[in-house]
Design brief:
- By secondary structure, the chain is an all-alpha fold.
- Helices cover about 65% and strands about 0% of the residues.
- The chain is elongated, with a radius of gyration of 16 Å.
Length: about 140
């Protein structure tokens, strides 16, 4: 049973760490997929600052920002010694909802759906993230 203010267990923290790692890999894969799409239309983008500038400021990359923000949110919560069981579960649920591809939901989910149709690497990264969601909960079992 989950107590409202009980601290997240070591198992919950480990599950969130694993989720964070898988989401980082997914983010990198989706970023590369978007970069290829962008370069087909606009020409090559150099690594380093030119790419970072595009990612942060170009509307073509804006759809990836919610995933970036989720990873930052995971980082901040994993550093917080006061992370609760409820907080850990809500983070897990939010991540699950975000990486559920959909043709008719958020901009991220629509583009994510498109990436899964177009990129074997995105499918593989998705397959690494999906099993990290256990019955919608990160609670101890």
């Amino acid at each position: 049973m989950e107590l409202p203010n009980a601290r997240a267990s070591a198992q919950q923290r480990a599950a969130l760490e694993s989720l964070r790692h898988a989401l980082l890999k997914l983010h990198k894969t989706l970023l590369e997929w978007q970069r290829v799409r962008y370069e087909r239309e606009h020409g090559r983008v150099a690594d380093g600052y030119p790419l970072l500038d595009k990612v942060m400021n170009d509307p073509a990359f804006a759809w990836l920002r919610p995933l970036s923000a989720l990873i930052v949110q995971l980082d901040e919560n994993l550093e917080n010694t006061e992370l609760t069981q409820t907080g850990a579960r809500l983070l897990n649920d939010h991540a699950r909802q975000m990486v559920t591809p959909s043709e008719s939901s958020t901009e991220f989910q629509r583009n994510y759906h498109r990436a899964l149709q177009d990129s074997p690497a995105a499918v593989m990264a998705h397959r690494e993230v999906s099993p990290l969601f256990t019955s919608g909960r990160t609670a101890d079992h």
